TrEMBL record:
This is Aldolase. Pfam families: DeoC (PF01791). PANTHER family: SULFOFRUCTOSEPHOSPHATE ALDOLASE (PTHR39340:SF1). The lineage of its organism: Bacteria, Bacillati, Actinomycetota, Actinomycetes, Jiangellales. One of its GO terms (molecular function) is 6-deoxy-6-sulfofructose-1-phosphate aldolase activity. Keywords: Lyase. InterPro entries: Aldolase_TIM (IPR013785), DeoC/FbaB/LacD_aldolase (IPR002915), LacD_aldolase (IPR050552).
Length: 294
């Protein structure tokens, strides 16, 4: 039997009846602006991002166990328009991004404008923090940030979700992104967060046995349930990647791009969300229901 870490925190408001997580992410910010910019000549303004987030939330959350929304472009309107379906848990992104090292998101920290107690009052059940793992710098800062974030969530009665993403060394040179995925889990996966969010090993492109081996290593490193994200994984590959991860101890997914990215640029985005993104999300939910419950 696959070892599955036990959480001391009630995660049921984020989970499906099966206990699996089928969570939707619409918290992308400047990266989402870039995605729209690839399909149009006119500037992508903030309102366009917000309208997409509201539409995706309204259309997809009836089929998701939780939804992740950002403060900058999504939260206020999503709440004002009551776009989150009943029974779908609300997660608020508590990360602040800045460009650095030639990357659009090159530095992250805790957003001081996200008050955990206020988020709970607004209906959130969890906060999420993105942390960039680099092999040559920042270990102490990363650990301290994760521990502080987990403590802030705990004090407010919120679930804490930590997402670690492997990035190149600050000093440059050769590096192994996939070894960084495993190293990040070992470094940050047992620092007090209630749920860990990991990149898919090998972006789902390696042999199944190797992907499973690496997922099992993440399970052994992380002291909480964990889920996969979809950035860097094509929508065609992601369902198989989710199944492989869950067969080795993952408890589901928290993903956006593999669900809705191909809708961007369509003549009728909302139609594409209804006709295609819903089907993808429902398929993913069925996979985690089946695999996690084995």
């Amino acid at each position: 039997m696959t070892f599955r870490p036990e959480s001391t925190t009630d995660l049921s408001e984020l989970a499906r009846p099966s206990g699996a997580f089928a969570m939707l992410a619409v918290d992308q910010r400047e990266a989402l602006r870039q995605m729209f910019a690839q399909h149009q000549v006119e500037p992508v303004d903030d309102e366009q991002l917000t309208q997409f987030k509201v539409a995706a939330t309204r259309t997809l959350t009836p089929h998701a166990s939780a939804v992740l929304v950002d403060r900058e472009f999504g939260l206020d309107r999503v709440l004002a328009e009551r776009a989150v379906a009943p029974g779908c848990g609300l997660i608020v992104a508590a990360d602040h991004f800045e460009p650095a090292h030639g990357e659009l998101v090159g530095w992250t920290g805790i957003d001081p404008l996200v008050d955990p107690h206020e988020a709970k009052r607004l209906g959130a059940v969890a906060l999420k923090l993105l942390v960039l793992y680099r092999p040559d710098a920042g270990q102490r800062e990363r650990i301290e940030t994760v521990e502080r974030f987990a403590g802030q969530c705990r004090d407010a009665g919120l679930v804490s979700i930590v997402e670690a993403v492997s990035r190149a060394p600050v000093a440059g040179g050769t590096w192994d992104r996939d070894e960084g995925v495993l190293a990040a889990a070992a470094e940050l996966g047992s620092r007090g967060a209630d749920l860990y969010k990991a990149e898919v090993p090998l972006r789902g492109q390696g042999g199944a046995a190797e992907i499973r081996r690496r997922c099992a290593q993440i399970t052994a490193s992380v002291g909480s349930p964990w889920v996969v994200l979809s950035s860097g994984v094509s929508e065609d590959v992601f369902p198989d990647a989710v199944e492989l991860a869950c067969s080795e101890g993952a408890s589901g997914f928290l993903a956006g791009r593999a669900v809705w990215a191909s809708c961007i640029g369509a003549p009728d985005v909302e139609h594409e969300l209804r006709e295609r993104a819903v089907a993808r999300l429902r398929r993913l939910a069925a996979i985690v229901d089946e695999t996690v419950g084995r």
